[in-house]
Recover the amino acids of this structure.
């Protein structure tokens, strides 16, 4: 399909192309056109019917949108933006340079311009920034028939007609009515009798991640957004909520891997941008490893006396690091999903303590057996004369460091949340650096006291 | 609210309790009742209206569902399951022990039982396993008015009426019509003229994660599921798609942190289950660290000659590990989101190579400067007589290991995908183990050749 369309574009067979495209889904058209040559874009874009063109436009990547905007005439631009929903319009404008934004705003009506500016003013991660203003508002005194009439009137401009909002004086939100309620009730039923007053709603300034989590929790299709005086100002639709959930999961994953989050897909991110998102944490963590180096240096003499101790440094550091990142990542995800909050700190620590004890015991016992059977008897890795004391040192270190690592791993993300920092940065790389230092200190101190070196 | 309801239960004030509960959202009721005493559950459950009771039931955790099923009479059980949608029914039955399932199935009609057994037979992660069979099917010869009549007839049993499905002979899927299309077109319009034939659909055996990704990609509310002969057999609704997306993100995150995934929330998972999900990888990674130990042992003599080399082992291993996990995690997430596929392997390697070169150069140069300025001049960490050669060794090692780590980190998840393994297990802990060995080998070999030890 993709090849066929691209070759129709190259061959300038626009009649045939149009027949194919009008049957297609806007997402697919946008994806295919991204592969076409940039110079062909305007002419292909112009053969699409207005409504479809606007939809395709909203799925383009920012650079293509900007290119097209520059090529379209003022009238064409107006047509596209007239068809777009308010949330898509705002999303696009947020990414454009000032002169492009200015040109687009010039093509809109004064009323729409005012609304756009209003929406652009909401903080970046707020519910207000992802909501749209096209929805069906009804009055509680309306009958089902009145409501359906109103949907027929304004439905085309509404992003969803699945859920309608019943408002009172000063646009205060009173309840919701679904289209199912309307179709399944008698035509003369009054909305006040069938509307659901247990409305789940969000405030304009609520964090968009929390808002998106409400869709997951309550299985809703759209969420009304109200201002501080409970006046309905917009709705968030489920497709935008999914985008937020996916973005936030990606962001968490990136932060956990010591990457500064970006909001573009893999191949859309340039080498330079990828580099810039990775190097800060790499540098920071590299430099903070100076401390582990300093710890080793301070025990250097003792290590020279008993060099076999060096053998186990990587194993001890890694096992503790893995143990710590397991608990930190578990807690970070639970915080993101809203399963755990700051007030649960004692329950979390109590649970992690028990898990940590069992994990530490198992690891330390397995290590003990492994060192006797495998390292000593098979590989003969270390001096037979001293091996029992060494095995005890390594196993004890393992017990204490895994235990400490797991508790630190669980507490740090909770503390970050409490201090309004992002818990996700407290994941593996950060924990590893702390845990490495802990592991070395514990190891050397146990070694000194047990082995008397 | 929660306290008020719980105390009303304790005080047996059921009249007042009922008034409160009927106004509430089923999700919230379920969450509050989970905090109540188990013995009070049946009586509270019985005061809810039938439809609401069934909804609340579907939001309970499995252990509470099982407890209630055992307490309810056959008639009550039948009432609950009559109200439930097919996908929720199947979800519940999948978690129940055989005798409970048997008792529930006994209360359903022969037809429904057949359907349930059919749905239970789909593989665990397939589209078939998450679809429901309650949807609106229409014929293309119907008028808009006919369609609305049919929705009024069967709408109550349908999970969504937002999107309706137009089917032909043998239930073959021909197109979709949204409720918006129906309300905004003339009553005598024939569905064939307004239906959208560019239907996005899934096959019953498609992976549920891929199906859920379609909701994100196409911004749809429901997805028709067809069998191998394009016959419509069910639909997946957006709420279930969100659940799948969230579960898969959590699973990926857990696997990346070397945890076996579980599908329960943090506090619902017992200490024993949490332990079992964490210990296998910890053990495996601990034992595989034997190799890093063996590498160090084989260079032990040389390390005794120049113990300052030991100081930099943790920094080298960690920095390479972090670099590798950055690229592996980025590629894993891109694979999950469908941004990258196996056929992109060369583009991925090419991009990562360029990022790796820049990162390696910057890290190695910064390290060079840092070792001269900080370690040598301020802390005086190592022997001044030999320091320049050592600095060169460490910086060169850093360059090569970060480079190798990043490339290995990018390739392994792609290979895993190609071999139909889960790319997520190729994340940080696994990469770290490989990269540690690489770092040590590179380090010691460069040290031997540059320092002539």
């Amino acid at each position: 399909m993709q090849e066929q369309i691209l070759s129709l574009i190259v061959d300038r067979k626009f009649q045939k192309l149009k027949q194919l495209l009008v049957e297609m889904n806007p997402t697919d058209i946008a994806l295919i056109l991204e592969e076409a040559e940039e110079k062909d874009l305007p002419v292909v874009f112009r053969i699409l019917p207005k409504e479809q063109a606007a939809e395709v436009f909203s799925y383009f990547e920012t650079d293509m949108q900007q290119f097209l905007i520059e090529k379209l005439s003022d009238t064409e631009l107006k047509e596209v933006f007239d068809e777009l929903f308010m949330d898509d319009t705002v999303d696009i404008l947020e990414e454009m340079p000032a002169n492009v934004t200015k040109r687009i705003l010039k093509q809109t009506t004064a009323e729409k311009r005012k609304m756009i500016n209003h929406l652009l003013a909401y903080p970046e991660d707020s519910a207000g920034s992802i909501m749209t203003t096209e929805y069906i508002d009804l009055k509680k005194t309306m009958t089902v028939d009145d409501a359906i009439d109103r949907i027929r009137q304004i439905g085309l401009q509404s992003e969803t007609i699945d859920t309608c909002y019943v408002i009172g004086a000063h646009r205060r939100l009173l309840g919701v009515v679904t289209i199912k309620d309307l179709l399944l009730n008698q035509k003369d039923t009054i909305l006040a009798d069938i509307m659901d007053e247990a409305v789940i709603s969000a405030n304009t300034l609520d964090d968009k991640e929390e808002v998106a989590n409400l869709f997951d929790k309550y299985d809703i299709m759209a969420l009304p957004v109200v201002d501080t005086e409970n006046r309905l100002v917009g709705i968030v639709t489920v497709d935008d909520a999914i985008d937020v959930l996916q973005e936030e999961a990606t962001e968490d994953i990136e932060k956990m891997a010591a990457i500064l989050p970006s909001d573009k897909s893999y191949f859309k991110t340039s080498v330079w941008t990828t580099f810039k998102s990775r190097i800060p944490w790499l540098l920071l963590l590299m430099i903070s490893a100076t401390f582990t180096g300093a710890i080793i240096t301070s025990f250097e003499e003792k290590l020279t006396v008993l060099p076999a101790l060096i053998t186990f440094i990587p194993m001890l550091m890694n096992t503790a690091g893995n143990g710590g990142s397991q608990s930190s990542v578990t807690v970070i995800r639970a915080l993101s999903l809203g399963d755990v909050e700051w007030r649960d700190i004692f329950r979390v620590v109590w649970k992690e303590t028990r898990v940590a004890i069992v994990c530490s015991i198992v690891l330390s016992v397995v290590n003990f057996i492994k060192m006797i059977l495998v390292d000593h008897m098979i590989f003969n890795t270390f001096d037979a004369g001293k091996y029992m004391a060494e095995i005890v040192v390594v196993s004890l270190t393992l017990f204490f460091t895994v235990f400490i690592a797991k508790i630190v791993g669980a507490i740090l993300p909770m503390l970050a949340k409490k201090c309004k920092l992002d818990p996700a940065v407290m994941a593996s790389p950060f924990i590893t650096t702390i845990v490495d230092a802990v592991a070395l200190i514990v190891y050397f101190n146990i070694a000194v006291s047990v082995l008397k070196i």
